Amino acid sequence: YPLVAELTHPEGTMPGCGGDPASLLAGDWQLQSLTGHSLPNPSEISLSVSNGQISGHSGCNRYFGALALTGEGISLGPLGVTRMACPPPQMLTEQAVLDMLSRVTRFDLSDDGALILLAGDDPVATFGR
After folding, report:
1. Mean pLDDT of 44-67
2. I want to staple 56 with a disulfide (CB 3.0 to 4.6 A). Which of 10, 12, 46, 124 is the partner?
């Protein structure tokens, strides 16, 4: 959550948080790393979030779909993808990116503001602004 609160009372202090978590995701992101994959040019992979929708470039084609935040979780998709053919390395990159997006269940932000997408407790990708 984007806001942090702290309640202090005679028996101690209680931390809390609030606000709209979607505001943390809004905007444009560039891939920095994809767990388990060495990508020739990760900056070609993008993710944009706006009004409950995601879109971006997957290495070859553009993708788009719904984004839903549920408590501590996130759900992406179903995704639509344009259908251009690209050289095999780009197609492999695209498949890895689309597979990763289909597995995302949570997100976190690092201390330096990077967006970390997770499948369960496992980080699957990191994006920067």
Report:
1. 96
2. 46
Q: What's the token pair of residue 75?
A: 């759900």
CA 87 to mean position of chain CA atoms: 26
DSSP string, the chain: --EEEEEEETTEEEEEEES-THHHH-EEEEEEEETTB--S-GGG-EEEEETTEEEEE-SSSEEEEEEEEETTEEEEEEEEE------HHHHHHHHHHHHHHHH--EEEE-TTS-EEEEETTEEEEEEE-
Structure tokens at 56: 């971006």
Both tokens of 76, joined, read 């992406």
In tens, the pLDDT along 85-99 reads: 999 989 999 999 999
Amino acid in position 8: T
pLDDT cut 90: percent of the chain above it: 70
**Pair of tokens at residue 120:** 């369960």
